[in-house]
Amino acid sequence: MLSSVSALKAGRRAFFAGVARGMASDSTAAKGSTRHISPSTYSALEARLNITFSNPAIMEQVCTHRSFEQGRLASNDRMQWVGKRVLNLYVGEFLAAKFPNMTVEMLQDMQHANFGLASLAEVAKHFGMLPAMRWESAVKEAPHVGQTKVLGKSVQALVGAIYQDQGAAAAKKFVAQHLLTRTVDVEAVVQMKNPKLLLAALTRQKGMQMPIARLMKETGRFTSSPVFIVGMFSGVKMIGMGYGSSLKMGEQRAVKDALIKYYAKEVKDFKLASLTGDEEQMSFFEQPLL
After folding, report:
1. Spatial distance between the Cα atoms of 113 and 102, rounded to a whole number of angstroms
2. Among 51, 68, 94, 157, which residue's beta carbon has the most beta carbons within 10 A?
3. SS3 of residue 94 by DSSP
4. Which residues contact 234 (CB under 8 A, 6 or more apart)?
């Protein structure tokens, strides 16, 4: 009996020791703060992203957060500061050109939702930056705390490093290829209070006729699960459609559909101001001078 109890206790000790080792291993991976990351890790990251920095140490600095080694090593702080502003310029320019009907507030929400730190952290994981990151959580008992923010800022630092090392054109190209090609969720961002009042004001502003809701189709009116399809019209033009289990719900959805179609309207073929000319090649002389 005593031997069975001793064996059980020994088994429990072995189990919890194994769990502790596993947690320590996960902790190290989550922090990405391996003390000696091979230089090949950074060169492989450059190759994967099709980047060639003038100095191999640049990518290592991009992946070094100021929390690592208590800030004794060169960190990505200044790169991130520059990169954040470069991203804001290029992304803001892109969104403003792509969605000309959106309000400034909507554009701001769109940029935050699709290009904020949480979104950029997912981009960093897609790039494969997590194994190369050097950082330490401020909460030793919870090594994952802060990871999203650190990863998001690392992408900003990467853009800043490209801008500083290779120039604005290279940074613009990188942002266009790796960030602006991602699908953006417009409907999740275009959240409108008082949609009926907004639609009425919008149609007046655009010189359109007052919106009118019309029942387009219905089924099961006298059953427990009716469906009403409502069209929203301005004159003879249908500007939105919605459905619901009541006429009110169908009308509400038709109003929102009309607003989303207006504000989320995309311009497919547009030119960005930052790509429309080359200052060095521009001249106001009518013909070349000898």
Report:
1. 15
2. 157
3. helix
4. 203, 208, 209, 210, 211, 212
Task: Check: CB of residue 138 under 8 Å from CB of residue 146.
Answer: yes
pLDDT on residue 284: 46
CA 138 to the chain's CA centroid: 25
Q: What angle separates helix 39-49 from helix 117-127, to the nearest 10 degrees? A: 100
Scanning the structure block, which residue is given the tokens 């690392």? 154
Alpha-carbon Rg for the chain in angstroms: 28
- pLDDT tens sequence across 200-232: 999 999 999 999 999 999 999 999 999 999 999
Average pLDDT across the chain, whole number: 82
Is the whole model's pTM more than 0.90, yes or no? no
What is the spatial distance between Cα 199 and Cα 37, in angstroms, rounded to a whole number?
Answer: 57
Separation CA 239–CA 236 (nearest Å): 9
Q: Contacts from 279-288 at CB under 8 Å and sequence distance 24+?
A: none
CB 229 within 8 A of CB 203: no
Higher pLDDT, 120 or 7: 120
